[in-house]
Design brief:
Elements (H helix, E strand, L loop, with lengths): L10 E4 L1 H6 L11 E4 L1 H9 L6 H17 L10 E2 L11 E4 L17 H15 L5 E4 L3 H9 L3 E3 L17 E3 L4 H5 L4 E5 L2 E7 L11 E4 L5 E9 L2 E6 L18 H10 L6 E6 L5 H15 L5 E6 L15 H5 L4 H12 L5 H15 E3 L13 E6 L6 H8 L7 E6 L15 H9 L5 E6 L6 H9 L1
Parallel strand pairs: 1-2, 1-5, 2-4, 5-6, 7-10, 13-17, 13-18, 14-15, 14-16, 16-17
Antiparallel strand pairs: 3-4, 8-9, 9-12, 10-11, 11-12
Length: 466
Amino acid sequence: MPRKAPLSNKLFVLDTNVLMHDPTSLFQFQEHDVYVPMVVLEELDNNKKGMTEVARNARQVSRFLDELVSQPEADMSQGLPLAITGQRQARGNLFLQTEALGADVPATLAGLKPDNQIIGVALALQRRHLPRPVILVSKDINMRIKAHALGILAEDYTTDKVLEDSDLLYTGARELTPEFWDQHGGNIESWQEQGRTLYRIEGPLCTSLLVNEFVWQEGDRPFFAQVRSRDGDSAVLQTLKDYTSQRNNTWGITAANREQNFALNLLMNPELDFVTLLGQAGTGKTLLTLAAGLMQTLEHKVYNEIIMTRVTVPVGEDIGFLPGTEEEKMTPWMGALEDNLDVLNRSDDEAGDWGRAATRDLIRSRIKIKSLNFMRGRTFLSKYLIIDEAQNLTPKQMKTLITRAGPGTKVVCLGNIAQIDTPYLTEGSSGLTYVVDRFKDWAHSGHITLQRGERSRLAEHASEVL
């Protein structure tokens, strides 16, 4: 007979999709106990084959479970202590289903469907363990709705959610109040460095500023700067290079608005190894990133190659298997690249048709299109790596990609968290949201959220009213 757990100690029943989303979810429930139904083990077994992220996660869960049940003192009836594997934060026990649990599931639920079998197990456990809370954890919204309809407590798996509200996500820039200089200009110091003016300021706002955050103030004397460093209640602000001016054009492109100017200051700074750009369709994320990449690869020789990759999640129906090499298979997904190369190639009006054709061939020879499927184990040296549609990556996939960066490599992540196509990913749990939050205030990373669409008046109006 299993020992009685304290009533404050909850019992979480895990759905298969939680384990396949995050294999370490077994260890994320602190002092509470975790229960894995037999049908979940069957579904893990059915999904373990292949090289997909889901298959890898299924195999990792199986390894964790094998490690737990292989302990000499393992007693399934009493629960397997999760901390045995070295995961100190997990102070509860794991229970595997060792007996048939009958529950009066309504006849309207098809009994053989795995989801309904898991709901049946949760219902039986709830009746057996009253008044102890039994909670079903699933990333499937419809399953949670069915559970609630039957009186079962059900929750989404939120451990890997960075934010509950995407409006709270770090934007990378803040507007200074009109009284800013009155409050912070008392002991101001200024000096010049490499053509930029730097200001050391002191005041209450300094404690909340983040390194590489942009600050701005419009008016009679506009002020645009970036936080260079921060120490207690003092900070050093550095003025920006003006990329809205034609003399500072980047591969023929100039910034069309304030945020684009901020973005180019990040992209053209070789000291920043990691840059994230968020924004709706048409804000110029890909165009600015490619222009900066071409400038630094072909003219400044900072990087020797541009590598572009993206998650191949279709918006509509999948188009099936594609013929050809890795690059040829990726080409249908890279329409955005081709569109932006057309814009960048047209920017040189004096070159003529032959000159533009030669430039296009040169550009294409320096841009490589790679699939995410073959990234594991690689190391990129002195590359300019662009990860497009990064909102469709899980935090684990994002970690896999960013850790490919070797010396001299810059990683740029682009995305719009309002357009997530990957099942079970939300704005709060997207890998892009995750890295924006985790990398803020690191001296070698920068972020900006682009606000204004610059595609056309039609596109901008459509994004507002549709």
